[in-house]
UniProtKB/TrEMBL annotation:
Signal peptide as annotated in the record: none
Alphabetized CDD domains for the sequence: DEXHc_priA, SF2_C_priA
Example of a GO biological process term: DNA replication initiation
Residues binding Zn(2+) 2: C544, C547, C562, C565
Single Gene Ontology MF annotation: DNA binding
Physiological role: Initiates the restart of stalled replication forks, which reloads the replicative helicase on sites other than the origin of replication. Recognizes and binds to abandoned replication forks and remodels them to uncover a helicase loading site. Promotes assembly of the primosome at these replication forks.
Protein's name in the database: Replication restart protein PriA
InterPro entries (UniProt xref): DEAD/DEAH_box_helicase_dom, Helicase_ATP-bd, Helicase_C-like, P-loop_NTPase, PriA, PriA_3primeBD, PriA_3primeBD_sf, PriA_C
Amino-acid positions noted as binding Zn(2+) 1 in the UniProt annotation, renumbered to this chain: C535, C538, C575, C578
PANTHER family, sorted: PRIMOSOMAL PROTEIN N
Chemical reaction(s) catalysed: Couples ATP hydrolysis with the unwinding of duplex DNA by translocating in the 3'-5' direction; ATP + H2O = ADP + phosphate + H(+)
Subunit structure, interactors included: Component of the replication restart primosome.
Amino acid sequence: MLEFAQAPQSNRRTLFVDVILPLAISRNYTYRVPFEMNDHIAIGKRVVVQFGKSRLYTAIVAGVGELAPEKYEAKYIIEILDNKPIVTERQLQFWHWVAEYYMCNEGEVMNAALPSALKLASETKVTLNKEYEFDKTLLNDKEFMITEALDLQPELTISDIVKLLGQKTVMPVLKSLFEKNIIHISEEVSERFKPRRKTFITLHPSYNNQDNLRELFEILERRAPKQADAVLAFIKLSRQQKTVTKAELIEDSGAGDGSIRALIDKEVFIAEERAISRLRYDEDEEAISTFTLSDVQQTALEDIQNQFASKDVVLLHGVTASGKTQVYIRLIEAVIATGKQVLYLLPEIALTTHIIERLRIYFGGSIGVYHSRFNDNERVEVWQKVLQGEYKVILGARSSVFLPFQDLGLIIVDEEHETSYKQYDPAPRYNARDAAVYLANMHKGKVLLGSATPSFETYYNARTNKYGLVELNERYGGVQLPLIEVVSIAAETKQKTMQSHFTSVLIADVQQAIENKEQVILFQNRRGYAPVLMCRVCAYTPKCINCDVSLTFHKHTGKLHCHYCGYKEDSPSICPACGSTHLEYKGFGTEKVEDELSVLMPDARLARMDLDTTRSRNSLQNILNDLEDKKIDVLVGTQMVAKGLDFADVTVIGIINADSLLKYPDYRANERSFQMLAQVSGRAGRRGKQGKVVIQTYDPSHRVIRQVIENDYADLYSTELEERKGFNYPPFYRIINIDIKHQNPEILYNQAEYLANELRKHFGERVIGPEAPLINRIRNYYIKSIMLKFERENTSMAKAKALIRETITQFQTTKLSKGSIVQPDVDPY
Ligand SMILES: Nc1ncnc2c1ncn2[C@@H]1O[C@H](COP(=O)(O)OP(=O)(O)OP(=O)(O)O)[C@@H](O)[C@H]1O
Ligand SMILES: [Zn+2]
């Protein structure tokens, strides 16, 4: 806590601060600094202020000055929370840029940027950290009171605590409890990164002596033959490989866990638990850290470094399993050797724990990991360590662009085409890939975008020489890209060779793979059992009560679920409309694929990876571990399985139905389908043996499928680009969508028409709509979309955005706008 008692008398200047409040308000507010705080106030520190009637918030100081606000009387700051700024001035500039570019407020950016424990507000919830034992006698009175209250009532809001202590200044007490690890602040899902551990077995050194070993055998063979088998198996295995794990020993010897444990107790075996990496080409750690790049990788690396001399951004376009990660590692090494920091962005970090492990081997303690599955205490810890420059490499999902970097030399955006870099909701609706380009520029650092299937925007920038371009056209180790076979569902249906959703070709390939002790991934881009339940008599389908979507049946819960708002209801056994009992499930999701496969292949070990099976703590990790340990023969999953998985024994990939991707009503459908199909296919045969992909479709001659088979990205790009040009789409045009929402559809209609007309006054033909989006009601709000298209060349987007903002603000001052929500989305994805 700060001590103000000795503040020098002389500093009695009247100071004001501009603060950013963590709210969706359009501007910053000015507060007055009490004299005794004059010496402590600084940009980037948090202050507690009152906003509105009685709400307390932590705000960030964005400016200090002597000017009083003109239109209102400034309230006083209640307290200063930090001894040192926790946000750098450069970050504040970055927030400002994000707010301007993505047409939102700095408060919204602040909300996305700061871990919630750093932005306490009246409604923030506080709980005790149950995993931590502490000595209450060491607490001061106020800390004690709070912990006592939390014993009685497991959750308190900050307002509760204000009442409890009878004072407004509670934040420092909470901050102190938080730093002592005694409380959690608005705890969310927490999932600490855990390296995988395995038990390694070695033989006690005394049995290096042949006589001792022979003696041991004789005894064991008589008394415990299973144990003798285990020792034999150990000797055999240790001749073939450098290390022997307990799991391998059990599998090879047929001896049970009990026998091995008995041998450990007898000190014949020595067991040691060690963290292991997921690298299978060699489990020996030293060998890993001294890997060498192949010639093509080395050339690519040098090429990237050369291009950085003249380009700020370089695209590494490398086929799947070409070893882009290894090239990144060399680049990172070079940058941190100069003392600068590196940000390594990944689309969905939970899926890429093996990359974390790989990097940990090289960069040890200087690497930090940051993503939303971590709890707040952990996120604050990472924040501090980045601020202090302790972490040199940060591996993170999109929100890590907001960390307080000191000196960023390089940002790597892996799988740059991924849609998860874009935040849809809430604002800021930013794309971390694009924001990274601006961020790196602020630090005078470089950006490397990596992908096997680049986004068109990026590829366009590379082809027009705005970005550098480096290609890596072969898989590491000369492994061939998988063979792709397209199978017509229509033809097999006619020949009656389909078994539920599987063609005979796919079934045969899956069976062959299982026989060969290899693994299979089946992709179906829909979760749940069946997306539509329909009455065969009257065609009634149950819809969500809050949204304009049909409900998906989930067998696991036996209920109908809304995937947009989470609403659930029991699945009816008779049609609520006509009373018929002929209800039919239409379509199919991952749950059904898994279910039907288990009937067709009762002996295969199946698992499923989608949002439903990975919600709980560690569940995703467990699936990946099982895949790694070969406890899974077939993994069924949604697009989650397309993201960077690198497993050596996956040889067969099945796309259960390519049509739903290809038919998606969006101008990007072809680009997306190609990316998805090529990425999923890329999981097959990554080491040694060539993989096989089966694509099931009703439309085998579809152009995009041919392009996927031929791995002809260039052809896809040029054909699509012609169409984009014709229809004024990106990359030739920039899009801004404005969604307008209201609970009443008639009022919404009028609002949307009005707003569109106002926009047309400025932008004419560039304004399209309003139109109802694909799903025109979500959570009881009806939605209309207005689209604006701007020529990429010769448009000042800053001016256009300012005009749009003005028009929206003007609309919001009209009576008509009452009850509406207006949400601009810049570069929608
Ligand atoms: N120089 C190297 N030495 C040893 N192993 C390598 C080397 N380069 C790549 N590998 C191995 O090859 C496999 C594929 O590499 P990696 O996962 O980096 O490919 P990628 O290009 O990122 O693929 P994707 O785009 O599909 O994610 C990995 O298991 C990696 O460890
Ligand atoms: Zn709903």
